[in-house]
Design goal:
The protein has about 600 residues and is of the alpha/beta class. It has 3 domains: about 240 residues, Glutamine Phosphoribosylpyrophosphate, subunit 1, domain 1, CATH 3.60.20.10; about 180 residues, Glucose-6-phosphate isomerase like protein, domain 1 (Rossmann fold), CATH 3.40.50.10490; about 150 residues, 3-Layer(aba) Sandwich (Rossmann fold). Strands 3-2-4-1-10-9-11-15 form an 8-stranded antiparallel β-sheet, covered by helices on one side. Strands 5-6-7-8-12-13-14 form a 7-stranded antiparallel β-sheet. Strand 20, helix 11 and strand 21 form a beta-alpha-beta unit. It starts with a strand and ends in an 18-residue tail after the last helix.
């Protein structure tokens, strides 16, 4: 959620910090700030608002060579200057930026108040600098160990110490923190894009490891046991692999929607290896008999990834011998799930750092389940803690509203279903020629997006939408409704078309448009009957339908056609119109599409 950047090196730090914070804006935030050390004094600048406002009040040519910056998404305390990061201790020695939540901050704050500390904010973060002030002693590593032992919850911390002007300190637990190594300079940040302009060598510290960041010597210590010094080799990631420009598009989201055909080509070629009519995933080799030994699949995810998991339930239970359970990650622990060593637990998370999904994964591991993850970051916490990984191969996704990662999740869910069939029964039902046509058809849909734009503009003034579908199209329509809510701020309710008569039909009138998936698949006749019910209530209907379907014209007010193809692949086709419709409604309303209010790209707190 929050964005962190730190720099220590041979050049003035402010330009790096400002640029890094701008590269982290996609994570979502409501205030920003930075702290630098100049001539032995800590200087802090904060704003409620955007990084470009922060840039206006800092002096880029200050001779500070060490500093930290932060974009805050408010959890404890409103978005105010006092609550914005960085936070400083009573004596002005330590400054901290923090991503995460300190769950026991109230108890710690009461203790520190009793010890005479003075607090300036309502945040949970501020307890950290006061704990440092309280416990710091000559042995730096031991001091940090004492502080970390007091903290409960998730955190990524970067600390600046006025008395040690050549070093920054970084610690993480269940929140991402990445170190970048340059020439005579060291960086630290929440995510790779913030550092991609300057470095190619990265270190990914584990939980409860202290990194002492100094241009002359990087040291990492394990704070859990005997404070041992660790030797961690950097990982090289070329700058060319991290594309973060808009490529001429007005928004990252539109660029990422248009990247989806290319991503599917990548998945269908580079993500798998064909041997005759069989195929294998390049990302993993599972244990022998895995698919025969499991008797249940449990999927957990949040938001868009949850809809992909819900889609998997519909798709897999048609052809695989398993019962598939799907849970919101945040609810998984509260229903006392019955899983064991014969359960395959699947965690889906585009970032691989979703806090609720990590917590669910760890519970599943305690119960003995085998763990498979679908993530877009093989170096993420979820990927590292899984037995098997499927890498989504989507590239960096900047837009907060997930698009291309959802498409990649659908692709791997389809491929995994076919792969399991292959392993269980010695066959799969993939028509490779049909599969190769899918990206071509997606490009055709994108080339005709002006029609979708016209329809979206037409309905952009409506305040409420109903999204309906049936069968395996139902999770997709839920995702379509979510997209509209996320970026246009319009209320959109996704419901099963068969459930309309049990309540939602009461919402229908001429001011409540209904978006539907009505392609010619096994749900077509049923959804058509539901649309006639909608029509009788005078609600306008926007239908995503198969090209040349004349019958659907009898009920739909506006039609978005997708190419006629093998009906088993229509879920790839209908996804793009739903995304584009939401995008163009938001564009017409002049919303902040890439950074919608109140949302963060990576939800790293529970």
């Amino acid at each position: 959620m929050c964005g962190i950047i730190g720099y220590v090196g041979k050049n003035p730090c402010v330009p790096y910090i400002i640029k890094g914070l701008k590269m982290l804006e996609y994570r979502g935030y409501d205030s920003a700030g930075l702290a630098t050390l100049v001539d032995g004094e800590i200087k802090i600048k904060k704003v409620v608002g955007k990084v470009n406002q922060l840039e206006k009040i800092v002096v880029n040519n200050e001779e500070g060579y060490i500093g930290i910056g932060h974009t805050r998404w408010a959890t404890h305390g409103e978005p105010t200057l006092n609550n914005a990061h960085p936070h400083i201790d009573c004596n002005g020695r330590f400054v901290v930026v923090h991503n995460g939540i300190i769950e026991n901050y109230k108890e710690l704050k009461d203790y520190l108040l009793g010890r005479g500390h003075i607090f300036r904010s309502q945040t949970d973060t501020e307890v950290i600098v006061h704990l440092l002030e309280e416990f710091f002693e000559e042995n730096i590593v031991y001091s940090f160990k004492r502080v970390v032992e007091k903290l409960e919850g998730s955190f990524a911390l970067v600390i600046l110490d006025k008395n040690n002007p050549q070093s920054l300190y970084g610690i993480k637990r269940q929140s991402p923190l990445i170190i970048g190594l340059g020439d005579g300079e060291v960086f630290v940040a929440s995510d790779i894009p913030a550092l991609s302009l300057w470095v190619e060598d990265y270190i990914f510290p584990e939980d409860d490891q202290l990194a002492i960041l100094n241009p002359k010597k990087l040291e990492i210590y394990n704070l859990k046991d005997k404070l041992e010094k660790l030797n961690i080799k950097p990982v090289k990631i070329s700058k060319e692999k991290i594309s973060i420009d808009k490529g001429g598009y007005p928004h990252y989201m539109l660029k990422e929607i248009h990247e989806q055909p290319t991503i599917l080509r990548e998945i269908f070629t580079e993500g798998i290896e064909k041997k005759g009519n069989f195929f294998f995933f390049k990302d993993f080799k599972e244990d022998d008999n895995l698919w025969k030994n499991i008797n249940k699949i449990s999927i957990v995810a949040c938001g868009t990834s949850y809809h992909a998991g819900y889609f998997a339930k519909y798709l897999w239970e048609e052809e695989l011998p398993y019962n598939v359970e799907v849970d919101y990650s945040s609810e998984f622990r509260y229903r006392k799930p019955k899983i064991d060593k014969n359960t395959l637990f699947i965690a889906i998370s585009q970032s691989g750092e979703t806090a609720d999904t990590i917590a669910a994964l760890r519970l599943a591991r305690e119960k003995g389940a085998k763990i498979l993850s679908l993530t877009n970051n093989l170096r993420s916490t979820i990927a590292r803690e899984s037995d098997l990984n499927l890498y989504l191969r989507s590239g960096i996704e900047i837009g907060v509203a997930a698009t291309k990662t959802f498409m990649a999740e659908l692709a791997f869910i389809f491929l995994l279903k076919e792969y399991i069939k292959q392993e269980l029964y010695g066959e799969n039902s993939i028509n490779w020629d049909d599969l190769r046509k899918i990206p071509v058809y997606l490009e055709k849909i994108l080339s005709e997006s002006n029609l979708i734009k016209e329809i979206a503009y037409k309905y952009s003034k409506n305040k409420n939408f109903l999204y309906i579908a049936r069968g395996k199209n139902f999770p997709l329509i839920l995702e379509g409704a979510l997209k509209l809510k996320e970026i246009s701020y319009i209320h959109a309710e996704g419901v099963s078309a068969g459930e309309m008569k049990h309540g939602p039909i009461a919402l229908l009138d001429e001011n409540t448009p209904v978006m539907t998936i009505a392609v010619q698949d096994e749900t077509y006749n049923k959804i058509f009957s539901n649309l006639e019910e909608v029509k009788a209530r005078k609600a306008p209907i926007i239908a995503i339908a198969t090209e040349n379907d004349q019958k659907i014209m009898d009920v739909a007010d506006d039609l978005i056609y997708v190419p006629k193809h093998n009906s088993k692949y229509y879920y790839f086709f209908v996804t793009i119109p739903l995304q584009l419709f939401a995008y163009y409604v938001a564009e017409k309303l002049e919303r902040e599409i890439d950074q919608p209010r109140n949302l963060a790209k990576s939800v790293t707190v529970e």
